[in-house]
Design goal:
- The chain is an alpha/beta fold and 514 residues long.
- Helix content is 58%, strand content 8%.
- The protein has 20 helices and 9 strands.
- The longest helix is centred in the first third of the chain and has 74 residues, at 53-126.
């Protein structure tokens, strides 16, 4: 018996000893020869290094660096692929969990639908028996009374209808402004803003603003904060005795529904905005309505305002329709036609824009379809006698613009010189004006002259605000010679003392060049 236990002891000792040798050969075996190999490398280096020379040592160090880099790269690749594998396994596990969760939710949805069907079956069974004729009559009655049960779809616009059930009396000019012209409007508005509101603007700003109204429906007032951009259209609304509607643009605006509202299929009502209400109210009035989009470049203008930019390019103003609902109803607002609203002519849209890092850049698409005024400093106070407001019928204001275009058309000489300037800009800066800008200039210049300015001042404004504005996207650092040549060309075409705005803009570009 003792012999057996002696055998078992020796057998287990030998077994675990062999097992240790086995694992040692696996993990430590590859490293057994390392000391000998290091000694061999050291002996090689000792035998040959004395004869390396300078060049040899250089290549020796270079070899060591390259070998270390290769080993490091190999180690990084191994680490990278291991990490990718771990992430892949993690995503696979998450996908399995999501699939299981989706299957569970689908099962719960199936049970919920089944339960709903049972409840509906019980409810229908509990109803009193009716004849087929009575059921049909009930359905017809429900359809006939559907509109009254849903109430009014456009509550704000319906309130406007109620407000104007009794038409307003026609807007009349004050007795002291019975024959006021565009120049008189500019001067009177400037004195009104200064004397009653404490807002001070230059006469040039008044001329540009009023002339822009006669040129298009969209006006952009841009510049640094606190220079009176929003105050200008607000003051103009007070001047007309018809307050401007100010709509604050939000950074989240991304389509027309933010501007106009949308139809809610659950409540069967149209969620109206103040912007839509202001447009609709203008259809009842005979004076000018001013709608302000405050800080309009907090969101991308071409996203939420794209439809208006396109509609107001149509030559036929009777086609300026906004579609609000697809299916009209009998109780819709009176001035909707088949669910569409015609943008009235007695309205202007004024957008204010700050130039800072919190806003989006205004694109050429927007600039080309609007008139823009730039505010770069606060107004300088001046003495102004107390001046009353001046309500203006839109037809009268429109007739003044039409008269200005007939009395002060763009002269042939100025047009030819401007075309020469166009060719110069194309040749040196690869920028073309476009027919839209030429049409705007042919409307703006006569209005500006009628407001008390000169023809060349108006052309200077158009060139600076429409053409030189596009230079801001160019790399002016490489255009120093071209900018100097443009300055000389302006003097050559229009005279030494003209185009002050444009030349100041060019000097600003040259300062950037250094």
């Amino acid at each position: 018996m003792s012999a057996y236990f002696e055998y078992l002891k020796n057998m287990l000792i030998q077994f675990f000893t062999n097992l240790g040798y086995f694992f040692a050969d696996i993990f430590a075996g590859p490293w057994k020869r390392v000391p000998q190999e290091i000694d061999y490398y050291n002996s090689l280096y000792a035998n040959y290094s004395p004869d390396f020379g300078t060049a040899g040592y250089f290549f020796f160090v270079l070899f060591i660096i390259i070998a270390a880099a290769l080993l490091g790269a190999l180690g990084y690749l191994i680490f990278y692929f291991i990490r990718r594998y771990i992430r892949y396994r993690g995503r696979t596990e998450d996908t399995k969990k999501y699939k299981a969760e989706i299957e569970r939710l689908n099962l719960e949805l199936f049970h919920a639908i089944s339960e709903k069907d049972k409840i509906l079956g019980i409810s229908v069974g509990a109803l009193p028996a009716n004849t087929g004729t009575a059921s049909i009559e009930n359905k017809n009655e429900k359809k006939e009374n559907e509109e009254s049960n849903d109430d009014v779809r456009f509550p704000k616009l319906a309130a406007v209808d109620e407000e104007y059930l009794t038409p307003l009396p026609p807007t009349r000019l004050p007795e002291d402004a019975a024959n006021i012209d565009l120049k008189g409007i500019c001067e009177r508005f400037r004195l009104f803003a200064a004397s009653q509101l404490g807002l001070y603007y230059t006469i040039e700003t008044m001329r540009e603003f009023i002339s822009s109204i006669g040129t298009g429906k969209i006006i952009i007032l841009e510049g640094i904060s606190g220079t009176g951009k929003t105050s200008l259209p607000y003051a103009f609304g007070r001047f007309l005795q018809h307050n401007a509607t100010i709509c604050s643009v939000q950074p989240s605006w991304h389509d027309r529904s933010e501007l106009l509202g949308y139809y809610n299929d659950f409540t069967h009502r149209f969620t109206e905005t103040e912007f839509l209400r202001a447009i609709y109210e203008a259809t009842y009035r005979d004076d000018l309505s001013v709608v302000v989009l405050d800080e309009m470049n907090l969101a991308r203008i071409e996203y939420y305002f794209a439809e208006f930019l396109s509609i107001m390019e149509m030559p036929n103003v009777n086609e300026w329709n906004i579609s609000l609902v697809a299916a009209p109803r009998s109780d819709d607002p009176r001035h909707l036609n088949e669910g569409r609203l015609l943008i009235p002519q007695n309205i202007i849209f004024v957008g204010t824009a700050n130039n800072d890092d919190s806003t989006f850049t205004i694109t050429d698409k927007v600039y080309d379809r609007s008139m823009s005024l730039f505010f770069d400093n606060k107004g300088i106070p001046f003495e102004a006698k107390f001046t009353e407001s001046c309500p203006l019928p839109y037809d009268y204001l429109s007739s003044l613009f039409a008269k200005a275009k007939a009395d002060y058309p763009l002269s042939t000489k100025t047009k030819e010189r401007f075309e020469a300037l166009d060719e110069f800009v194309i040749a040196h800066f690869k920028l073309a004006f476009g027919n839209r800008i030429l049409r705007q200039m042919e409307s703006f210049v006569p209005c500006y002259v009628a407001c008390g300015g000169t023809e060349l001042e108006a052309v200077d404004y158009v060139f600076e605000s429409k053409i030189l504005k596009k230079f801001e996207v160019l790399n002016v650092a490489f255009l120093r010679d071209e900018l100097l040549a443009l300055d000389q060309e302006l003097t050559k075409l229009f005279g030494k003392g003209e185009f002050k705005r444009s030349k100041a803009k060019i000097r600003g570009f040259l300062k950037q060049v250094g």
